[in-house]
Amino acid sequence: MAHSLSPECTPLKHEYDACFNTWFEGYLEPAIANANTKGRSQGQRIEYSKQKKEEYDSKCGSIWTKYKDCVQKAVTEKGLGELLSQARQENPLREPPPPDASGSS
Predict the structure, then answer these.
(1) Where are the alpha helices (DSSP H) in 1-105?
(2) Would you tell me how many other CB atoms lie within 10 Å of the CB of residue 60?
(3) Is the confidence at residue 105, as pLDDT, over 50?
(4) Cα 12 to chain center, whole Å?
């Protein structure tokens, strides 16, 4: 696994990566298996996504918060905040288009 921006953040990064990868495999496998099932309604897919979000939050959420805080501290200590701000101004993130309201995908 790759290292983090700061050596003291690397153990948190590895812990988070492992947690996320395990969670994501559990999310993706059933999602792919059920993608071609015509019997699943939009409501069922939304409910499944909500359940998986709650699972992520309970298993990986606190690890993510600790890792993110560590990286943000490292960004500040290394004086990268101004560069990030400039990059965000020059290349702002765009909101994705809203999902198709008709429910067809």
Answers:
(1) 10-35, 42-56, 62-77, 81-90
(2) 21
(3) no
(4) 15
Q: Which two tokens stand for residue 19?
A: 């947690």
Q: Which residues contact 75 (CB under 8 A, 6 or more apart)?
A: 5, 81, 84
For helices 42-56 and 10-35, the axis angle rounded to 10 degrees is 160
Q: Residues 31, 33, 39, 43: what is their CA dihedral angle, to the nearest 10 degrees? A: -10
**Segment 47-63, tens digit of pLDDT:** 888 999 999 999 999 99
For residue 104, give both structure tokens.
């067809």
**Per-residue model confidence as pLDDT tens digits over 25-53:** 988 877 677 666 566 677 887 888 899 99
The secondary structure element, H or E, covering residue 103 is none
Amino acid of residue 49: S
